[in-house]
Write a structure and sequence with these properties.
It is built from eight helices and six strands. The protein is α/β, with parallel strands linked by helices. Helix 4 packs parallel to helix 8 and helix 5 runs parallel beside helix 6.
Amino acid sequence: MWTSKNRVRYDRSKLRYPSDLTDDEWLLVEPLIPPGKTGGGKRTVIMREVVNGLMYILSTGCQWRAIPKDLPPKSSVYDYFDLWAYDGTLARIHHALYERCREQAQREASPTAAIIDSQSVKSAEKGGACIDPHGYDAGKKIKGKKRHILVDTLGLLLHAIVHPADIQDRDGGVLVMATLFGMFPFLKTLFADSGYQGPKFAKALAKVLPHLDVEIVKRSDRVSGFVVLPKRWIVERSIAWLNRCRRLAKDWENLNRKALAFLRFASIRFMLRKLCNPA
């Protein structure tokens, strides 16, 4: 909660750009970045500046060619972003920071309960044979992509996928759970809204994770207006946290894996600030 007393803790005006990493944040990230390859020329680019460049793109939502001149060239920043998304570096950084956040909150590293939900976002103007197709979400009347996210009871991102918006929640939800690949083996309960209700989702989930219980949190028909629903508000808050990054305001990426990488990077940004500014 913002107050006059703790506002100083979150002040980033003394940094070159508000999106730059602080010294404490860089100390958490630096050991997780893989070293340069042996042989050939030595790595000359400053890795902290590469991460700062990615944070600038993520926070401001600007084009790659609009990166300021005092940051590394767009080619270097993009190449490392593409490499880290491809070789799993982003995923490893995310998981390491996730475990630190769980430890900070005095929780076990692997959660036992999770909440799932989706967010449909409009796609930017793009076309061609080398892009992943978008879809039309008839319920929300949005033409674009759908971000399916899974969070724990602290609101921290566990897993996510990006797919066309015309895929229903129950089908996308199965895809999310099927691609966990045993990462969180102690999950026992999954909270979801009525979009995941029905035998189709239950049967498909039972084949993937037979030990997982699904609890549907429904909205009462007797209540009108905004109502805070148990557990479901956690994932809605997480989506709001991630949407503070302007790169996620729309679906700008041609490939779903790049959109997923930015989503994961937004979660890394949130966890870094959470670890360096504990409540």
